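Contributing new records

If you add data, match the layout below exactly. Sequence lines come first and carry their own label; structure lines follow with theirs. Keep one chain per record. Anything else will be rejected by the validation script.
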Amino acid sequence: MFGLVSSSGKCNYPALRRLFITDEVMADVGITEEQYKSMRLFYAKHSEKLVYHLGITSRMLKSVGIDVQD
């Protein structure tokens, strides 16, 4: 979605954190650095806020296999 997933399907999490999930975004979403490092999935309440802060559209989600109702 943001060009951070390799052809083998591995996400570049350090780049995701550095470029998109900034300290400001984490504060607004309500996630600490320690929580972020241990998370494998985001809770729904965090996901909704991240989608908003990162400007993720339903079309972008569908492009990575996530089907949402508009």
